Every structure is written in structure tokens, then in C-alpha cells.
Amino acid sequence: MQSRSYLLVVGVLAILAFTVAQLAWWVLFHLRYSAQEIQATAQHLQADRQSAERTLLALSQRQALGPGGPAEFLRLAYPQLDWQPGVRPGQELLPGFPGYGVTLRPGRVEQLQAQRRASFRMFAAEGTTFLCILVAGTALILRSVRREMELMRQQANFLSAVTHELKSPLASIRLFIETLELRDPPPEKRTRFLANMRADVDRLDGLVSNILAVARLDSGRFVVHVDRGDVGRDVANVVTAFGKDPSQRRLNLELTLPDQSVQARYDLGVLKTVLRNLLDNAAKYGGADKPVRVAVARKGDCATIEVSDQGIGLAAEEREKIFQKFYRVGEEMVRQTEGSGLGLYLARELIRQLGGGITAESPGVGKGTTFQVTLPLSNEESA
Q1: C-alpha angle with apex 248: 281 to 305, nearest 5 degrees?
Q2: How far is the C-alpha of 360 from the C-alpha of 34, rounded, in Å?
């Protein structure tokens, strides 16, 4: 995948270099063509001047110039030429007519110079504009390619992680089943085997439920049933059930509830999924035997649920990335913590379905993380 990404980037940059070279050639070609056209026009005018002088001399010798003299003749035959009006001793061109030669009209010379400057500005402006558009487009393409490659990498890592997450409990269940088939263990062992098998099944059920929920969210088929509820009571129930769940890691949970009931609007099933995902995240990254604090409070017109751990923490640039689909903290090749990269993404999207929000704050790497969930209060509470 990395080699394909590298080749694609090299190809895009090669196309950009070729196009820039073509653009530069186009600008230089047109500037050169414009200069040659102006030079040819100047040469043509110079040839007209010389031809006009010869014609005037021939007409003067035959005394064929009209009453208007050389000025009238040039106005009719050569509109871009003027008769030089002054007289210099010994330089009179035509006997009997004041003047000593034919010259280009000053305005015509200035027009040629202005035309050259305008051509240069036009081609320079067009070339610069096209180059800026090209560079901006290339930058957007490269950015899109980079994001696409990153998504492909995360999806590949997701498939690898999910495969592991599915195979591990399945292998465990298979082992327990084969053990029960080969021998008749004592009742206490049978009970322990069955408990472990149930924990593995619950683990599989949680993973599949998350994947299905993400699929429904992405397809717009996820439906929430918002109702009024006591946030503190429901959070306490979820935390208690999580602590007793044999499929989950052991956590040192500390629960803080408000003195008064906090009534908010939410879907109880969604709240359970979000809170369990946050607790599961704390179990994975919070550090062994370190307390995980869950606190419910009312702040302004919102009910808040905070889940704080003392684990690996977050760098500043990861506070938003962790809510992206498939994103997992750390290097993929050396990561030891299991997971699919869907839990926090699912938590944020579900909370948004309720009109709330979720944020992550951390003092830094190794200093723990606090997730804060906000839910809108019920009408009676907000009043």
C-alpha cells in the first residue's frame, strides 16, 4: 500500500512538473511571438517610410505633387506616416516644400510599445493564474490521496484488529467446548468454563453490536427513541453492571453523583452503549489498578457525564483524531492493546443523534484523559 501511495504521489508530481514546463513554454512562446509580430510591424512601417520618400522624390521630379504637397499625399497614401515639418539648411528633401523627410507618427510608436507591454502583462497574468490554479488543484489532489491512503490503511488495520477480536474468543470457546466433550470436569470447573464461555460470547456480541451500529449510522438507518430520564440513576446502573460483567476488564471505579436528580432527554440504550464504550476505553488505556472516576453533574442547561482515567493520556493533536473511524492511538505495528477503533467514533455519533456532544481533554501524554458527555436537559429541568 505504501509503495502504491508513493508511486501515485510521484505520478501526480511528475504531471505537475510536466504541466508547469508546458505552461512556461506556452508563455514564452506567446511572448516571443508577440515580440516578433511587433518587430515585423515596425519593419513594415520603416519600409513604408523609405518607399514614401522615394515616391515623393519621383513625384516632385515630375512636378506631380498636388497643392497639398507631401503632407496631403502621406495622409492619403500612408496614414501612419507624417511629413517632417521643420527645415534644416542643406537637408531640404523636396524643392519648394518645407521639410526634410518622412517619419512615423509618434502615437504609432508609443502604441507599439504599449502593445508589447500589454502582451507581456496579459501572458504573465494568465500564466500566473493558471499556475496558481494548477498548484492548488494538485495540492487538493495530494491531500485527498493522502486521506484516502490513510483511510485505506486504517481500514486494513481495522480488518486485522476485528479478525483478531473475533478469532480470540472463538478459539477460547472452541477450547472450552472440546474440553467439556473430552472429559467430565468437576462442577466447579464446569461452572468456571461456562462463565468464561459466556464472557467470550458477550465480548463477541459487543463487537458485532458496535459494527452493526456504525453501519446503521453511516447508512442513516439508526433510530433513537428520546425520552426523559434520571441521568445519575441510569449512569449508576450502567457502571454497576459494567463492574460485574465478566467479559470486561476489572476496573477500580469511583462514581460521583449529584445531590439532586438531573433530568435529561436521551435514549437509554444509546446512553448505555456510549458509557460502556468509554469505560471499555478507560479499561484499555487507563492503566492497571488506577482509579477511573465517573461523575454526573448539571452545568448550565446541560447534564454532563465525565469519565476520567489516569492512563496513557493524549497528545494535543490526537484529541480530535481519536473520534475518527478506525483511528487508534499509537503505532499499529507495535500496539499491544486490542480494539477495533470504532468505540469512540460510535460514542460521538450516537451522542450527536441525541443533540449532545462529547469531548476529550488531557494534560498530555502519560497524564490521563477525561471524556465529557453533554446531554440536553428535559424541558422541566431547563426551565
Answers
A1: 45
A2: 62
Cell reading at 217: 449510522
Residue 9, φ and ψ in degrees, nearest 5: -65, -45
- Does the pTM surpass 0.70? The reply is no
| pLDDT per position as a tens digit, 63-103 | 777 777 888 888 888 888 887 776 666 666 777 677 767 88
Kindly list the distances between the CA atom of residue 310 and the CA atoms of 137, 187, 342, 373, in Å, as whole numbers in the listed order: 45, 40, 22, 18
* Rounded Cα–Cα distance for residues 244 and 279 (Å): 13
Q: pLDDT digit string (tens) for 235-288?
A: 999 888 887 766 566 778 888 898 888 899 898 888 888 898 888 888 888 766
Q: Which residues, 6+ apart, have CB-to-CB distance to 289 below 8 Å?
A: 252
Q: Let me know if 362 is exposed, middle or buried by CB neighbors in 10 A (0-12, 13-18, 19+).
A: buried
Name every residue whose Cβ is closer than 8 Å to that of residue 287 and which is 6 or more positions away in sequence. 309, 310, 311, 312
Residue type, 180: L
Which helix (H) or strand (E) segment holds residue 58: the answer is helix 2-61
Contact 264, 299 (CB under 8 A): no
Domains of the chain, residue spans: 2-84+98-145, 158-219, 227-382
For domain 158-219, give the fold.
Answer: Helix Hairpins (1.10.287)
Each residue of 21-31: b (16+ CB within 10 Å) or e? eebeeebeebb
pLDDT tens readout for residues 201-231: 877 887 777 777 777 877 777 788 888 899 9
Fold category of 227-382 in CATH:
Heat Shock Protein 90 (3.30.565)
C-alpha cell, 46: 520603416
d(CA 38, CA 113): 9
